[in-house]
Amino acid sequence: MREVHRIITGVHEVYGRIYRDLGLDRVLPAGRLRMSNRVLNRTVMAHIANPDSKQVSVRRLEKDFGVHVPLEKVYRMMDRLDEAAIAGMRERVGAYTRSLFPEPIDLVLFDCTTVVFESTYDDTWRS
Fold first, then answer.
1. Whole-model pTM?
2. pLDDT by residue (tens digit) across 64-83?
3. Are 46 and 57 in contact (CB under 8 A)?
């Protein structure tokens, strides 16, 4: 038996809804940047499903989700994420997060345990 093709479902539906509820689909101005908004969405979904490099992410999008995004479009979209767009994303996510908690937030901790190192060789760092 050999796997020929795989489609993973659910990530875009669940996290896509949160993405839209946060208004992240409107980070970049509509109109001529509509494709960049779509590429941003697909890139974010790919990173949620499997945090990888941009190059690996576009390959995974195609292989696992059946979504084709050329790597050069990812880089073009990133060039359009200026300070205003990044500030808008931070504000939207921050406002939504604050709305979930009745008390002011004094400290935020991030879980960084998803960092993965892979090698075919054992050494003192990876065993």
1. 0.69
2. 878 899 999 999 999 988 89
3. yes
